[in-house]
Amino acid sequence: MPVFTPSSSRATATTRPITASSAAAMPVDDVLAALGTAPDGLTAEAAEQRLRETGPNAVRSHRARAFPVLLRQLRSPLLILLAVTAVASFFVGERTDAFIIGVILSASIGLGFFNEYRAERAAEALHEQIRHRAVVVRSGRAAPVDVVELVPGDVVELQLGEVVPADVRLTSVIALECDESVLTGESVPAEKSLALAPPDSALGDLGDCALMGTVVSSGAGRGVVVATGGATEFGRIALGLGARHPETEFQHGLRRFSLLLVQVAAVLTAAIFAVNLALHRPVVDALLFSLAIAVGISPQLLPAVVSTSLAAGSRLLARCKVLVKRLVCIEDLGDIEVLFTDKTGTLTEGRIEYMRSVGPDGKASDEALLFGLVCTDAAVEDHHVVAGNPLDTALWEAPAPQRETATRYTRLAVLPFDHHRRLVSVLAEADGHRIVITKGAPETVLTRCEAVPDAAKVALEAEFAAGHRIVAVAVRDAPDAESLTSDDERDLRLCGFLVFLDPPKATARTALRRLDELGVTVKVITGDNATVATRVCADLGLPPGEVLTGADLDRLDDDELAERTAVTTVFARVGPEQKARIVRAQRRTGVDVAFLGDGVNDALALHAADVGVSVDSATDVAKDAADVVLLEKDLQVLADGVVAGRRIFANTIKYVLMGTSSNFGNMFSAAGASAFLSFLPMLPSQILLNNLLYDSSQLAIPTDSVDSELLARPSRWDIGLIRRFMLVFGPISSLFDFALFGIMLWGFHADAALFRSGWFVESLATQTLVIFAIRTRRSPFFRSRPSVPLLSAALGVVLIGAVLPATPFAGPLGFTPLPLAFFLALGLMVIAYLVLIEITKRWFFRTPRAVSPHRVRRPGHRMHRRAARFSFAKRDRG
């Protein structure tokens, strides 16, 4: 698009309110006057003054706020159960029970708040590093500016693939169309023109306005900003709706697990309460004991353990320059089994270098270079591209005398590039000679040319085989042309080819090998030529397998495509809709799919994938559509994210398996003991204290190391596995509990206080130390060592439990000192228990049913993405 020359007029720093609806019904001159601006934009000083008055152009802020984080901690059903139990204990006079439950509540809420708020602060800092930029004309010069600095009266350029940064009254358009589905739900792009809208125009009738959050799907334009931030049409809707995130697969698994616990707790609580009433025990005692059982079977600090794991993962990924938009998405990274990635910048260096210009005969020729410089839809100033694609930038940055010659041409009309035509054309004039120049994908350009020589086809194939990127250039005379449409891209004469080099990335081979070791299959989706993509894959050691092109895809139905994806690695010359179709077809095979892309033509595929991944240098639409943003476009960084997600899930499952089995065993023992003892086997306060100490030791689990085999493949929630684990290992714990009961009653002739003290110590020791067997499927300590914090926490809690009956706190808690002979018996029992657990563990994980299968995909899983949410959210300034 031609650049306006500076004029003598200058905008003032004053403006009056104006909306897109009112601006649509006003002539452009009236809009400029109302905004106090001019066609060449504001001055830098005026823009700075208005920014102070209107504030940043942002709908929402990513600032971490303590109170909302605190409220989120209170949503857990487990915490609600604890709170109800605490209130009931307080009002029936059991103040000790109420105090212990209060400590548990405070610990869970406090730890969850601390870790999530810390992670929110880290995310806030990372969001500051992600920039959305727009090309703004100020004082007659175009330059990229951060979108949060836009103000009413700014003149902005709109290019293909950009998210419209504010409500803009258009002043010039070239075949401009905008995808407004984010506002209207209409999937067909809206054509834009300069015709005035009627005074009572609705949102869908603003044909001469481009609205914030919509996407430039084709063409280009220029306009003046009339509203920013919350004053835009998008801003009013977004602020009214708020932000509500859908449930991830990880959250879905947690919810199903909580439901399992509720069911088990309900059955045990009702049964124990009925048994105690049948034995004519006081109703209050029976009720409190039953509630303590219900609380005891639930892993009270599970929210804290999960938030601690996610926070640790977010800090790890932050160091790797990975931004995960929500913490729970970290675990989703670990589920990736197939990664579709673009080629440029991921497998290649992404630094496009112009090499040479080749004529139709395959020999060096400068004609294609000259016309290639003229044929661009980018803004060019002082022989430099201000905003354009990497190929145009590389072309104009290359030293060549043709650049001076190219500046003699005047671009009278431009037909911008789009991903359907794969072409850009200009109507240009020099010395009274008017021509149409077309530049684009060779296969497309050649079909519009007359008499293409065989030498040109041979030269083209040779360049493709060498792995080079090729752009074809063709021209024709157009002496009477005044405008330009796609029908004018015909009867062309081939001038030749522009050859570019994008070498393979040095780190890509190592990254591909690492992803393969993690069980992630990498496939390439590219708009480039199939031969070029295959050559790059071969150079990096990635077997290309079969190759499918966009034309091949059109001949396959969905079922056939799903079958072909299993043997295809390279998908070449594909369009935006075809990319999304490939991703959906792969997901139909039952695997989790990630898509890495950075262009506007990648947005649909990012929506369709289980995990959408983009990069900081991507187009705005791609960054907003993604779940994960890489601050460096490197597959090594993505591999780090996969490992972090799997590590978090593995450590969470350690806690779940150990907690549910041990707690179930203890509560089953309590239920059985209460049926034949003349007293409660453990006081409610002792049960709660036991769980508090035990859970506190498990807060170190997120620091634990994870065996390599658990990182090699995705692991998923399997409620059936958890249930079987609980029913197998829980009774083993109960078996040793009943053995202890016999020793205490017949060996030590224990009264109620001594019995409760002995079981308290034994229960705490067995269920805490069993973590060392359950945390790994290997031989503990020999082939898999726990982390130092976990080892210290577990041994420390066992020591506290052992000495507690001999401290001054014993009396209020209902304990009494234990004889030395008890600890000898306890040591033998713990050794026997851990040996039996180890034997059972080896049997359990050898059975086919113990292996977690692929989950059945929930209907609509992740398909909530119907349109990207473009709020240009930044941290509020000032």
From TrEMBL:
<dbReference type="InterPro" id="IPR044492">
    <property type="entry name" value="P_typ_ATPase_HD_dom"/>
</dbReference>
<keyword id="KW-0460">Magnesium</keyword>
<comment type="similarity">
    <text>Belongs to the cation transport ATPase (P-type) (TC 3.A.3) family. Type IIIB subfamily.</text>
</comment>
<keyword id="KW-0472">Membrane</keyword>
<dbReference type="InterPro" id="IPR008250">
    <property type="entry name" value="ATPase_P-typ_transduc_dom_A_sf"/>
</dbReference>
<dbReference type="InterPro" id="IPR001757">
    <property type="entry name" value="P_typ_ATPase"/>
</dbReference>
<keyword id="KW-1003">Cell membrane</keyword>
<feature type="transmembrane region" description="Helical">
    <location>
        <begin position="725"/>
        <end position="748"/>
    </location>
</feature>
<dbReference type="Pfam" id="PF00690">
    <property type="entry name" value="Cation_ATPase_N"/>
</dbReference>
<feature type="transmembrane region" description="Helical">
    <location>
        <begin position="786"/>
        <end position="806"/>
    </location>
</feature>
<keyword id="KW-1133">Transmembrane helix</keyword>
<dbReference type="InterPro" id="IPR006415">
    <property type="entry name" value="P-type_ATPase_IIIB"/>
</dbReference>
<keyword id="KW-1278">Translocase</keyword>
<dbReference type="InterPro" id="IPR023299">
    <property type="entry name" value="ATPase_P-typ_cyto_dom_N"/>
</dbReference>
<dbReference type="InterPro" id="IPR059000">
    <property type="entry name" value="ATPase_P-type_domA"/>
</dbReference>
<feature type="transmembrane region" description="Helical">
    <location>
        <begin position="259"/>
        <end position="280"/>
    </location>
</feature>
<dbReference type="InterPro" id="IPR023298">
    <property type="entry name" value="ATPase_P-typ_TM_dom_sf"/>
</dbReference>
<keyword id="KW-0812">Transmembrane</keyword>
<feature type="transmembrane region" description="Helical">
    <location>
        <begin position="818"/>
        <end position="839"/>
    </location>
</feature>
<feature type="transmembrane region" description="Helical">
    <location>
        <begin position="98"/>
        <end position="114"/>
    </location>
</feature>
<keyword id="KW-0597">Phosphoprotein</keyword>
<keyword id="KW-0997">Cell inner membrane</keyword>
<protein>
    <recommendedName>
        <fullName>Magnesium-transporting ATPase, P-type 1</fullName>
        <ecNumber>7.2.2.14</ecNumber>
    </recommendedName>
</protein>
<dbReference type="InterPro" id="IPR004014">
    <property type="entry name" value="ATPase_P-typ_cation-transptr_N"/>
</dbReference>
<dbReference type="InterPro" id="IPR006068">
    <property type="entry name" value="ATPase_P-typ_cation-transptr_C"/>
</dbReference>
<feature type="transmembrane region" description="Helical">
    <location>
        <begin position="286"/>
        <end position="312"/>
    </location>
</feature>
<comment type="function">
    <text>Mediates magnesium influx to the cytosol.</text>
</comment>
<dbReference type="Pfam" id="PF00122">
    <property type="entry name" value="E1-E2_ATPase"/>
</dbReference>
<dbReference type="Pfam" id="PF00689">
    <property type="entry name" value="Cation_ATPase_C"/>
</dbReference>
<feature type="transmembrane region" description="Helical">
    <location>
        <begin position="754"/>
        <end position="774"/>
    </location>
</feature>
<feature type="transmembrane region" description="Helical">
    <location>
        <begin position="74"/>
        <end position="92"/>
    </location>
</feature>
<dbReference type="InterPro" id="IPR023214">
    <property type="entry name" value="HAD_sf"/>
</dbReference>
<feature type="domain" description="Cation-transporting P-type ATPase N-terminal">
    <location>
        <begin position="22"/>
        <end position="94"/>
    </location>
</feature>
<keyword id="KW-0547">Nucleotide-binding</keyword>
<dbReference type="InterPro" id="IPR036412">
    <property type="entry name" value="HAD-like_sf"/>
</dbReference>
<keyword id="KW-0067">ATP-binding</keyword>
<dbReference type="Pfam" id="PF00702">
    <property type="entry name" value="Hydrolase"/>
</dbReference>
<dbReference type="InterPro" id="IPR018303">
    <property type="entry name" value="ATPase_P-typ_P_site"/>
</dbReference>
